Automatic annotation (TrEMBL):
Keywords: Methyltransferase, S-adenosyl-L-methionine, Transferase. CDD domains: AdoMet_MTases (cd02440). Transmembrane segments: none annotated. Its EC number is 2.1.1.35. The keyword Transferase applies. GO terms for biological process: methylation; RNA processing. This is tRNA (uracil(54)-C(5))-methyltransferase. GO terms for molecular function: RNA binding; tRNA (uracil(54)-C5)-methyltransferase activity, S-adenosyl methionine-dependent. Belongs to the class I-like SAM-binding methyltransferase superfamily. RNA M5U methyltransferase family. The active site is at C359 (nucleophile). Residues 258-316 form the Methyltransferase domain. It catalyses: uridine(54) in tRNA + S-adenosyl-L-methionine = 5-methyluridine(54) in tRNA + S-adenosyl-L-homocysteine + H(+).
Amino acid sequence: RLANAVTPLWRLPYQEQLQVKYESQRKIFQTLTSRLEELGIDAQKSGGLCCPLQPVVASPVINGYRNKSTFSVNRGPDGNPKTVGLYVGTGRAGNIVCVKANHMENIPPKHKQVAQCYEEFIRRSSLDPCILFHEGGHWRELVVRTTSRGHTMAIVTFHPQQLGQEALATQKALLKEFFTCGPGSVCALTSLYFQESTMTRCSHEQSPFQLLHGEPHIFEEVLGLKFRISPDAFFQVNTYGAEVLYQAVGELSQAGEDTVLLDVCCGTGERWPLSKIIGIEVVEKAIEDARWNAAFNGISNCEFHSGKAEAVLPQLLSSWEDARPLVAVVNPSRAGLHYRVVRTIRNCKSIRRLLYISCKPEGEAMRNFVELCCPPDPGKKLAGEPFTPMLAIPFDMFPHTAHCELVLLFTR
């Protein structure tokens, strides 16, 4: 059941998986085309879609490709509340169970090994797991990050409840001992982090990641550049797939040496040969990583701004007087771009070319696509000339699942 829920295509030969994904992307573009037609835009091109849709680009790695996995702690099928794995079922139906990820095709063996060791540790612990915050308990989820260089980072989330500093220090010491000298030492962790968290998700600012053992960062290489990764920095989950994606984005941007690239939601920063790169990212630690990455790789033409794109971008572009061509690349989360970001891009005359990278084009991104392409709308303060979709390329960043990463090129 777990494999079917998380990786529904795992039984299909890989070429068939790509075909299934292509069909679902085609449906998304049929929807976009009709949405644009409803706005009075003559959107239909050859093939009945608003722009050419290329075949899905295959992932270079099909199994065990994930460089980051999040494991939950909850009751297993046997009722043991100290089970580490992935959820099956729904909270509404009240049938959630936590199932070990051993047979998941997309999770690498190293992640499964760390999860197994964490389960062994919490089963030895005298403290309860924290399944529901208001019911007490402490041990919560585990995040494992790995790189192609053989580095492994583990991040344990812990609910402190009413524990004092001394009791917390004891638990941290036990966790560190288990993973450095005890049975968990087989994992050979590069970094072991601990986060005391009273919320579902905490940023470093809300609750610092505490390094218990090893190096503060792990390192990855993409397209010959070295990247530093912090515990909460965004990095594409499929490293080899990301190389193919970034190469294509670099080519589609048609950015020459006089081009300024505006990279919204830039994560740890991926770079191309341009005159200037401006990155915006909400996660402070990711911006620190991006600055380090640029300096380490000898790239001096980057400037990074930390903060929400909807706050930073309007400020940045309101006084824009640079005559150089400006290409925008946006790579938002599933929530899509904030309306103020779309409005700022629309109203900035210098942006003639826009690359939208979406991990869920059928969701909020669809609203963004329509806002970028609709006729000028004074009521919504969309004054700038509309964009036109020119080319769509889906990338299979998530083999065995139903998801795709879509790169959509807009020009005006």
